[in-house]
Backbone:
């Protein structure tokens, strides 16, 4: 993703070099850790990426293929490219990491060989398969390729000698369904032959290996655990036990049909996500990043702590179309973090606020992250309704970020930006009005209930066409517009970059489909939700029994405990896993638990969505914060902790709209909505003052405790608690204002 260009505000500030940005993205954003290929291989990858992007643009504008054909073609291209574009993980350094790496790789290899051996044995005995040893040898070679052996090569930017065969095998398992569509899905529906099953096992292996290559071992390990559970459920204890399924039954469920690998996750990526990723790449290439930076500077630069407020606003705007918190933190942070440090903010705070703001783009309408499109598909609601519902939660997130920035700036005595450095709105609009056209058209089409992929199609087409307006106006002598023209060479580069940026999420969603398939087959999702309900009920009963005040309600306490358990599960799942797969998995297994507790369906999904996003700034694995720390030169863990504290508004927002569904326009009640807004604003201000330790004057330790407890109390929608909380917060902060005025020096 291209970084925004500098404006007057950032002139004289040494921005982080593109090489440093690329290094940080490779280190902390696995989705963008691409090989720098050269020669014929680079040309081949470019060609394949352009073909993939062109396919999606064409089908978006002129009609999709049959659902399963569209998904299989998409995944065939994606899986094949993954092994060409992404390097193998570097060999671990140190004895303990090496042992863990070998143990994990051997577990995967043994699992792959078990699946292959089971099928070969079954079909060899029945006479349906000859030369099964060749298939076992193929799977054995694939299993061995995942071992951390240095002589496999392919760990750097050079292609390993096994990478090309792996790419062919990965593409082949999906191409098989495409080439033999009529036989597999028509003639042999319900009764696959041995060849179908063998290709199914190979598909499972290649999807898991592609995900390991692109995102690391965590998600494939979860997939392997789910598959083992489906196979050996009869040996599980207690409520987790089920009858167990054969390898044949599992493969048939996961590979043939739309409930497994080629399910909703891959479907959404192939029809929605890819198009918006490509649109974001092309829009940034035309100069949209600079336009966002200029608008953010105009909107927030003149106020106290202006550079940090510019960071919050610009990162939010940029994040709407970038889709990746890490890439957002690096690209915008390359300018905003040095700018904040120059104007007086500490390196740790500058990195933390950039990370926190960058995560907000995924929850900011009208163009949200990939998870929003998945949510619209899973809930079967129009995307525009989802965008409208997301407005209030997003505003609370940015209110929290801006409030903390403002209080920190006041604590440090920082001023706003010199008005002479702030561009004029008229000048910005005159020089960049053409860049608004694609974005306005895309949003308008979404609001008019056009399909998201058709809206993205016209956004892409208009982006390309509008990029030619500046040279046309210069030739006609009627204006001096800014922006880069998407020449054929640049368009090819954009198509390549867009396809590469969508590869990891494509492979990951294939693995997510595998996981969901085993969950539906084994019923693990219902068992998990039942366990959450039972555990929260037991905890609520115990808390009510020891409540000497008699104020706790057992059902309300159970709901709170259930929300807390699901929030913890989302954060744990989100450590090292992108937001989209985290959301899909947790929405499938945790959402039923919250539904049983009486939480509205939409609020349930938004709850899971928000906490999946929060994982990017939650230590110990806070990738966005660590990437920002690399730019700021601050200690990563401390920066991550600071980013998490700065994101407390986002952490509390899900609880607010669960307790007050009116915030999501569910059963809308004007009085309830208004009181929730007021109490929410007071809650954000109270927690911000408590964390920063300043509100007109330093906040004393006891006052910090009071503000924290009172702020948390305001999350619950209860008029008595709201009245008490608002009164207490008003008294504490009012006393601080009075004290500041009393000790302030009188004017001469």
Residues:
């Amino acid at each position: 993703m291209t970084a925004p260009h500098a404006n007057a505000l950032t002139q004289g500030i040494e921005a982080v070099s593109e090489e440093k940005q690329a290094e940080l993205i490779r280190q902390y954003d696995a989705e963008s850790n691409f090989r720098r290929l050269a020669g014929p291989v680079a040309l081949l990858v470019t060609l394949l990426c352009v073909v993939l992007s062109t396919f999606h643009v064409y089908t978006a504008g002129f009609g999709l293929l049959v659902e399963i054909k569209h998904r299989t073609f998409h995944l065939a291209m994606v899986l094949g490219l993954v092994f060409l574009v992404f390097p193998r993980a570097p060999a671990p350094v140190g004895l303990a990491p090496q042992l863990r790496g070998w143990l994990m790789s051997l577990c995967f290899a043994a699992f792959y060989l078990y699946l292959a051996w089971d099928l070969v044995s079954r079909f060899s005995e029945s006479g349906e398969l000859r030369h099964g040893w060749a298939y076992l040898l193929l799977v054995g070679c694939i299993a061995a390729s995942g071992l951390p052996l240095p002589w496999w090569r392919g760990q750097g930017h050079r292609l390993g000698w096994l990478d090309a065969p792996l790419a062919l095998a990965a593409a082949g398992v999906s191409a098989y369904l495409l080439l033999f569509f009529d036989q597999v899905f028509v003639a042999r529906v319900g009764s696959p032959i041995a060849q179908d099953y063998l290709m199914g096992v190979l598909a499972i292996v290649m999807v898991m290996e592609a995900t390991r290559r692109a995102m690391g071992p965590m998600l494939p390990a979860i997939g392997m655990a789910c598959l083992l559970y489906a196979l050996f459920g009869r040996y599980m204890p207690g409520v987790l036990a089920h009858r167990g399924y054969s390898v044949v039954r599992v493969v048939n469920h996961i590979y043939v049909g739309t409930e497994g690998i080629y399910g909703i996750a891959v479907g959404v990526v192939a029809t929605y996500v890819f198009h918006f990723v490509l649109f974001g790449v092309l829009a940034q290439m035309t100069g949209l990043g600079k336009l966002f930076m200029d608008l953010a500077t105009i909107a927030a630069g003149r106020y106290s702590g202006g550079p940090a407020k510019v960071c919050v606003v610009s990162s939010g705007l940029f994040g709407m179309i970038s889709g990746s918190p890490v890439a957002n933190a690096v690209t915008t942070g390359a300018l905003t973090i040095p700018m904040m440090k120059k104007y007086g903010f500490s390196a740790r705070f500058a990195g933390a606020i950039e990370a926190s703001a960058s995560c907000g783009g995924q929850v900011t309408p009208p163009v949200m992250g990939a998870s929003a499109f998945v949510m619209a598909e899973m809930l079967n609601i129009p995307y525009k309704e989802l965008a409208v519902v997301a407005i209030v939660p997003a505003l609370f997130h940015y209110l929290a970020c801006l409030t903390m920035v403002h209080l920190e700036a006041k604590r440090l005595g920082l001023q706003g930006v010199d008005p002479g450095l702030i561009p004029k709105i008229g000048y910005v609009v005159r020089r960049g009005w053409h860049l608004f056209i694609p974005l306005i058209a895309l949003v308008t089409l979404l609001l008019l209930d056009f399909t998201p992929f058709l809206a993205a199609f016209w956004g892409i087409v208009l982006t390309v066409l509008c990029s030619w307006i500046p040279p046309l106006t210069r030739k006609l002598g009627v204006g001096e517009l800014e922006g880069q023209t998407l020449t054929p060479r640049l368009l090819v580069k954009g198509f390549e970059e867009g396809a590469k940026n969508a590869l990891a999420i494509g492979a990951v969603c294939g693995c997510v489909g595998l996981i969901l398939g085993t969950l539906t087959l084994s019923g693990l999702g219902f068992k998990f939700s039942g366990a959450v309900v039972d555990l929260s009920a037991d905890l609520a009963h115990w808390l009510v029994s020891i409540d000497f005040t008699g104020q706790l309600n057992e059902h309300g306490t159970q709901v709170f405990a259930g929300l807390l358990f699901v929030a913890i599960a989302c954060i744990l799942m989100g450590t090292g896993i992108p937001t989209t797969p985290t959301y899909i998995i947790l929405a499938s297994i945790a959402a039923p638990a919250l539904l049983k507790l009486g939480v509205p369906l939409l609020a349930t999904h938004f709850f899971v969505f928000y906490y999946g996003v929060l994982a990017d700034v939650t230590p110990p694995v806070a990738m966005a914060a660590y990437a920002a720390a690399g730019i700021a030169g601050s200690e990563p863990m401390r920066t991550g902790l600071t980013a998490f504290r700065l994101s407390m508004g986002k952490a509390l927002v899900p609880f607010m709209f669960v307790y007050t569904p009116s915030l999501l326009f569910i059963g809308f009640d004007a009085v309830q909505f208004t009181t929730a807004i007021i109490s929410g604003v007071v809650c954000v201000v109270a927690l911000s003052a408590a964390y920063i330790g300043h509100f007109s004057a330093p906040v004393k330790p006891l006052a910090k405790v009071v503000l924290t407890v009172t702020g948390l109390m305001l999350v619950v929608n209860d008029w008595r608690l709201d009245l008490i909380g608002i009164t207490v917060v008003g008294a504490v902060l009012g006393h601080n204002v009075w004290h500041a005025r009393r000790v302030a020096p009188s004017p001469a």
The beta strands are 694-695, 697-698.
